[in-house]
Specification:
- The chain is of the alpha+beta class.
- The protein has 9 helices and 6 strands, in the order αααββαββββααααα.
- It folds into 2 domains: 25-79, no CATH class; 85-205, no CATH class.
- 44% of the residues lie in helices and 12% in strands.
């Protein structure tokens, strides 16, 4: 009885895959930077990224670097990084989401004080540090502070139309920068930058104080 020999399976195709040390793209090595440029180039050609990044390789590289540093999805960073009056800033929603999912703290919660509609109405953010169980409390933000700083009275101010939301956003951004500044990377929330820019503009128009 003859034995029919089956053909040997084809040799596995060897695919050369370029890699960087530890598979990390970034500015640390020439290979990492080259890979970052390739990824940024692909993203810049997408119509799903915001217009500030479309066909703009440098902006995409910056967004990729920031995403790597905080461990976030690059597209999420692109959709939540805004430039207001020349200053980069995070959306408040992104700051809150990044904090809530970082794994080091419980989700942010808010404690309210004062009476709705009054200047003493406000809140502060709280969260529990999971490693120690310590309950952390942020700075208190009130309508009185918003008025004193000029945020409330500026033209088109959202502090007048949605005060509760603005109080929570401001309390959250202050809390994140106080207890997890590495997540914000030194940037303010978009709403803060808008308020600060208007405040500076008002002071500039008012001119120096004459004594």
């Amino acid at each position: 009885m003859s034995v029919v020999q089956q053909p040997a399976p084809p040799a596995a195709m060897e695919v050369e895959v370029e890699s960087t040390p530890n598979g990390v793209i970034g500015f640390g090595t020439s290979q990492g930077f080259a890979m970052m440029q390739r990824v940024a180039s692909a993203l810049s050609k997408s119509t799903l990224v915001p217009k500030a990044y479309q066909n703009n390789l440098p902006n995409c590289i910056v967004a990729l670097n920031m995403a790597n540093r905080i461990g976030a999805d690059p597209l999420m960073v692109m959709q939540n990084l805004y430039v207001v009056h020349g200053n980069p800033s995070w959306s408040s929603q992104f700051l809150i989401a990044t904090f809530n999912t970082c794994g080091r703290f419980s989700s942010l919660r808010y404690q309210w004080v004062g009476a709705v509609g009054k200047d003493d109405y406000g809140c502060y953010a709280t969260a529990t540090e999971l490693s120690s169980g310590e309950v952390l409390k942020g700075s208190l933000v009130t309508i009185a502070i918003a008025k004193q700083e000029g945020w409330y009275t500026k033209n088109g101010s959202k502090w007048q139309t949605m005060p509760q939301q603005m109080l929570m956003y401001r309390a959250a951004s202050w809390f994140v920068r106080a207890y997890a500044p590495e997540l914000a990377m030194g940037l303010h929330a978009t709403e803060e930058v808008e308020d600060f820019a208007k405040e500076q503009e008002t002071r500039k128009l008012a001119g120096p104080e004459i004594k």
